[in-house]
Amino acid sequence: MALVHDFLLDIRGAERVFMELCGMWPDAHIFTPVYDEEATEGRFAGRVIHTSYLQRLRPTARTFRALLPLYPDAIESFDFSDYDLVISSSSAWAHGVLCDERTLHVSYCHNPFRYAWNDYARTVTSHRNPLMRAFLRRTFRRWRIWDGAAAKRTDRYVANSSTTQARIRTYFGRESGIVYPPVETSRFSPGTPGEYYAIVSELMPHKRIAVAVEAFNALRLPLIVVGDGPEGRRLRKLAASNIEFTGRLPDAAVAGVLQRARALIQTSVEEFGIATVESQAAGRPVIARRGGGALETVVDGVTGCLWSGGARELVAVVLQFNDTAVSPDACVRNAARFDAAVFRRRLLAEVSEAHVARSRPERDGRLGARVDLPLPRTVRDAQS
């Protein structure tokens, strides 16, 4: 069996899902175009890891995007002819692996590659250089063609939310089941909240953290921002002294930040949003932008509130929202719906159904009788 991920250069939400897959299948080989053991905190050390020719360039989480046009070719360079089952974890190119007719490929989709699809216009127009805009338009046009071909050869898609399910249908023309990402809810427990609000996020343009910075500059309330990314330097320059940037923190420290926050602030429409569930698992409410995964993870008026608009609207909702009226127990109960055990059970069901669907019309050429292909051993082992 093989597990495939877009890249292993840091630990974010998608990597946490992949870690759960690795825990479900501890003997599976890992395939990823580029890998950094130190940056991934040794979470995959000791595994059989296959990387692509791009590994020789030693890209990091800050530099790997410069190789963007090369990743489709890199993911197609892997040989899966000796594998019965391949599960890809994809928000970009991992779903494009080449498997032969004997190999079952199930792709867990975090989102079709956002820069080529749902975030295409903003990505292109954000560059002032006309040559760069032309390059991106050409690159993403080719990418969409490649994505379409890749989608046709994937046996089964599993979406992480209703939003991603709709995008798989729209962009790939494929149906998919929904299995929510796993959240290790046991890492969190309610505590005594402090006076600050919190953000736990990758600092990327599409996360719209600048909206929260502008709002809390006006509110003058304490805000702790956990995470790092290309937007980090710009955001720090925009922020007033009441906003603290911690960078990336260990899991235990993140749990502590969430446990003591008045509420978690979410400024972007997420496909799912693992941090929103983690906050609720810590007994704390979420002030989340209306749309996407928040509609599935936050119970408006019970475990948080949903808002729309920009910084001015966020200021208003923070001032109006009474976090002390939210029951920590209600937050914890809601978070339990997304526990890792639920993920494991539902994903195994999807893989089993994919196997059955693929083998159903198989017939013996001599007798015309159906052939019942055995469930791959790796799936049987995980079920047991």
What does this structure look like?
With 384 residues, the protein is of the alpha/beta class. The chain has two domains: 2-182 and 342-383, Rossmann fold; 185-338, Glycogen Phosphorylase B (Rossmann fold). Helix content is 38%, strand content 14%. It contains 14 helices and 13 strands. It has a seven-stranded parallel sheet with strand order 3-2-1-4-5-6-7, sandwiched between helices. The chain has a three-stranded parallel sheet with strand order 8-9-10, sandwiched between helices. Strand 1, helix 1 (13-24) and strand 2 form a beta-alpha-beta unit. Helix 9 crosses helix 12.
Distance between the termini: 17 Å
Structural class: alpha/beta
Low-confidence stretches: 363-374
CATH architecture of the largest domain: 3-Layer(aba) Sandwich
Elements, N to C (H/E) = EHEEHEEHHEHEEHEHEHEHEHEHHHH
The overall number of domains is 2
Strand order of the largest sheet: 3-2-1-4-5-6-7
Beta strand count = 13
Helix content: 25-40%
* CATH structural fold name of the largest domain: Rossmann fold
Oligomer: single chain
User: β content, as a range?
Assistant: 5-15%
